[in-house]
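This follows on from our talk about sequence and fold. I would like you to pick a protein and set down its sequence and fold. Go ahead and set the record down below:
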Amino acid sequence: MSKEAPEGEGPSSEESSSKESRELKVSTWVRKAKQRIEDANAADEFDFLDPPITATARRGLGHTAQAEKEAHAKAATAPHDVPRPLRIAADYSWRIAIIVLVSAGVCWGLAKLSNLVIPLMVAALLAGLLLPVKVFLEKRFHFPNALSVTVTFLLFLAAISGALYAVIRTMAKNVPDLIDQAVRGVKEVQVWLNDGPLNIGASTIDGWLDSGLNALNENQDSIVRSAASGLTSVGHFGAGLILTLFALIFFLLQGETIWRWAVGLFPRRARGAMDGAGRRGWASLVSYVRVQVVVALIDAVGIGVGAAILQVPLALPLAVLVLLGAFIPIVGAVLTGFIAVLLALVSHGWVTAIIMLAVVLLVQQVESHVLQPLIMGRAVSLHPLAVVLGVAGGSFLFGIVGALFAVPVLAVMNTVVKYLATRSWERDPAVKADQDAVEAQAAEGPVLYGDEDREWHEPDVTPGPPPARSRATGTGGVSPLDDPE
């Protein structure tokens, strides 16, 4: 006789076992779902492995990676034996060391390729100076591109040839008289040394001259080697001059096309920044050259007119020398001023030399305190200390060439760094309008000859779909050097 469960008691054993079975199934399903999620994550993290690994290995790698992440997190939060200021100083130190090493490598490479780099830099300066003439001929007289470049180049050669002819003719006319005056001046100095307060006898002076002649005789081999190296330098100068003129023609003829091709070599995301920074740097270089020409002309006219009034011989060659020396800041003005005073001393004596010195100082003071702040300061935003240090460093590394290019290089670097640091290309409409032309030019490359009309026309910036691209060949309107998007 079976007993019935009394009312109010809990569920039977069968109901309890059924409930435990359901809970077990749910927990098993949750555990398997969690495992599948972990396997999927491991598959995403280790898909780069070839051949594919098993799920068990993936789980093992996943656990290892998780353990490494936790270890790194603990290490980041754990106290370090090295003080924080020292760690920060070490981080800055190795970065600065890398910058210094890379800069030294760049300077070494430029020094090795000086016969190639210097003509290109001179051609760039001349192109910035002559480009307004070319643009004027195109806009005013509607000359084609090739004809405007030809006329500009011929005018440049005519101006240089005329200046050289005038200088050589003046020197050929006045140098013999200047030599005679120099000989008389040397004799006067000898008389003053013999009879003046120093009381240096003629025998002592003759002994100095004999010592100098003996030194020349003993160093004949070195003198011959120096002369041979001078002839080699003349050959290098001639080759560099030809390369400069050749590069100048193509900078004027196809400068825009060459620049677009160069920008197309950079990754797609960097093209806007490089295009805008390069154009701003070029504008700064052109402004510097034009302003420097104006300042040099004022210096040359001031000193040349002063020398002509004082009847100093070689006044015209002296003015040309001042014009060329003005392109080397500080150093050029000192050297050309010294030569002007020396010519006045040799030709007319101490009084004229002192007056000539006053003229040179007056012109240089006007340049330093009036022309440089008002004209040069707007074109090149460089502190005078930066100019002095740049000229000193450039002359130490590369001689007179370094002193010549120090200020324009600093001006371009200053403009480029400011442009990139402020991300100005994102707000520059000229960069945005030029991107279509850069993309097209990246696929075609520079035009070496012919089709010159295409360069100076405004690019077609009509919005439209991008050109098709073939990943297999890298062609189809985009350079093969582009990064895949």
Residues 1-10, 446-485 have pLDDT under 50 and may be disordered. The radius of gyration is 38 Å. The chain has 14 helices and no strands.
